[in-house]
Amino acid sequence: HMSRYPVTNAQFAPFIAAGGYNTERYWTPAGWEARQKENWTEPRYWGDPTLNLSNHPVVGVSWYEAYAYTQWLSALTGQTIHLPTEQQWEKAARGTDGRVYPWGDEWDETLCNNGKTGIGRTSAVGCFPGGTSPYGLHDMSGNVWEWCLTAYNDGSNDVNRTDERVLRGGSWDI
User: Fold this and answer.
1) By CB distance 3.0 to 4.6 Å, which of 51, 109, 123, 167 could disulfide with 116?
2) How confident is the model over 35-51, as a mean pLDDT?
3) What is the pTM of this model?
4) Residue 159 region, left (φ>0) first, then alpha (ψ -120 to 50), else beta?
5) Using an 8 Å Cβ cutoff, are 132 and 108 in contact?
6) How many CA atoms lie within 13 A of 27 on its CB side?
């Protein structure tokens, strides 16, 4: 199971309000250390009114912040929620038929928020329904990069490692 849309600012705001940035149990040890060192209290760009619209995806979050959010949401809902592994993300975006993009094999700049749309920032989640994946997931290409659980260097899914993590999807400005 994966979320139909990227996490929005409206969905992330309760994590901040509930003290998620001040609750160590939601963070990996390295994430907590980074949060303290950098004095994170909210995502980068949180104060930018052009990027912090309620129905737009949250941006400027580190992998550690994204992970902490999933742990907070798990505690809140009583369900196990985690970032997808790279393999899970790829299947959700591409389906099982080997397609290159969520909508097929040919690039189509009209099916996702990218540098050619002229929007020049994030867009409301789900506003490019033609780009929906075979599993009904929106914004799997364009709009924002999405964090995966998987380490970039060797494919490990161990959350206690400090390796760089895999990003998938694409951005509104590429």
Assistant:
1) 109
2) 97
3) 0.96
4) alpha
5) no
6) 20
